[in-house]
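Morning run. Coffee first, then this:
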Amino acid sequence: MNKRENKLVLGTVQFGLNYGINNLNSKPTREKSFAMLDYAWENGIRTFDTAYAYGDAEEILGEFIKTRNLGSEIKIITKLKPNVLAEVPGSEVEIIRKNLAESLKRLGRGYVDGYLLHTPAYIHEPRVVSALQKLKKSGLAKNIGVSVYEKDDAVYAAGLPEVDYIQIPYSILDQRLDDKVFWGLTKKNKIKVFARTAFLQGLLFMPEEKIPVHLEKAKIYLKEMDEIIGRYSLNRQQAALLFSYCNENIDHVVFGVDNINQLTEDLQIVKDSPDCTECIAELRNKFRNIEKNIIFPSLWKK
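And here it is:
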């Protein structure tokens, strides 16, 4: 497997939930999800990202693994149910072990390659980190870590030698974690960084007339982005994906798709990998400090 194939990770949230501001087709059928998973596998993708909170995505992925007889050939990263430690009585070890057991049952696996906290605050609790370590020692998770939203949580997690994986938001408009301190700590502690939301849940692809009023400022940014990438003959999809993919500090890019056409296009973009060094440098300089209400989907008004 070459580096290009190994760097891409297919996210499965779209298979289990109606997800994304620009998703006009809602959740794909099981058959369409299987078609996308098949295409990804046939084209070299070997790692898939899912979560307890992604509706029935774990079940769909588990069924795919079983019917295709992939066994341990496929790598799976999943996540603890958000806020579960505040909702369920019991010790951290008991709750986390039970949640992972439920995920493993849905996935039809005896272990996962990565198990992440889906509530970033939990990474600050030593007993939670200790519980994850116990799962790792027992062989239920080969790697442990956290999915973060804020820079402070990312830097803190990067300073923990126990952490193997950190999943971060990273896109043209969200460059908060392009930070020397963060990269330095991940290198020092040999932590793999997974970048997600390259497309900002589809916002980067929305035509101006479709952008809601509360995201009005995004229109200005998208127009500025179009001016830059147009000079390099790139479209938004190419620029957004390659912005993350070409960052050498990022080990893996987690990307999601709503349909097989998007998947085909994304894989072709990476396969072609046009030289966009100068374009990326311009985009980095232009979009350093974008407002949180634009780059945090959780703050978007519904």
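The chain is about 45% helix and 10% strand. Good start to the day.
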